[in-house]
C-alpha cells in the first residue's frame, strides 16, 4: 500500500466572514491510498477553533496513517475503531476515512452511498451567506439563485436589516448561524423579528461552554429551534445536547469521518434530535464524503465547494438546489480536467 498526502489551497469567491473571523482562502489535506491497482482519495479540513492545521494533519498522517489503515482496506469498521481511538487531528481522521471508503467503493465497482445501503437523493442544501453589508448580502443572494434555503451568518450590527433585505428578494427558507456570538438577552430581543422574517432555525447561537444560556433559552415560549454545531463533536457529545437543544450539526471534519458520522446520526434519531449535515470550506471531494449520508439527515448544509473559485475535483452535481451524488464507483469524483 502506498499512502501519500498533499495540501490543497482553496480560494473563496468572496471574503467569508463569520462572527469570529474572516478568510479569503482555506487549506485542506488530500490523502491518497494506492493498493492492488486501485486508488482512493479523501479530504480533511482542519478545525481551526480546536487548534488544528493542515500541517499538523499532514504530519500525523505521515507518522500513523499506514498503521491506522492497516493491512485490509476493506475492513472499514476496523479502520473506524482505530481512528476513533487515535488522538490525532479530527481532520486527518476525516481524510483517511474518506480515502478508505473511496478505495473500497472503487474496488467493488460501487458508489459509497450504495455500499452503505442508502439512497442518493438528498434534502435540498442551504447556500451560506457570510457577514457583510446589507447591500452585499442582497447581491450575494442574487448571484446564487435557485436555492430553496439560505443560511445566513449573523453576529454583525445589521443582522435584522440584512435578513430583511434577503426577504425582499426571495421567498426561500432562511436559517441563521450565530457561530457562538450571541447572548441570551440579544437572542430574546431578536426573536420576534426573526419570526416575522420567517427564520426557521438558529445554529449555535451561544458559546459552546455557555450551557446556562442554552438551557434558559429553551424555556422561552416563542423560541426558534436551535441546532448545536461547535458544541457537538462526535458520538460522545450527542446525548448531552438532547437536554438543551433541538438538533445537532454533524460535520465530518469534527467527528472524523463517514463511519463516526453515521453513528451520530443513529444516536440522534434515538434521542429525537434532528440532524443537519454540515461542512467546512471544502472541495467537492470533502463535500462528497459527507453527502454519502445525506439521505439520513433532516437538513443539509453542504455548500462549501460552491463558495470556492478553483474547484480541484469534479463529479458532484447540483440540480434545483440539491446535490446529486455520482453513480460512479467510490466517491465518484475525478481531479478537475481529468477524464472520468
UniProtKB/TrEMBL annotation:
EC numbers on record: 5.1.1.-
Enzyme class name: isomerase
Keywords from the named record: Isomerase, Magnesium, Metal-binding
InterPro entries per UniProt: DgoD-like, Dipeptide_epimerase, Enolase-like_C_sf, Enolase-like_N, Enolase_C-like, Mandel_Rmase/mucon_lact_enz_CS, Mandelate_racemase_C, Mandelate_racemase_N_dom
Protein residues bound to Mg(2+): 177, 203, 229
Domain of life: Bacteria
Cofactor, how bound (note): Binds 1 Mg(2+) ion per subunit.
Name of this protein: Dipeptide epimerase
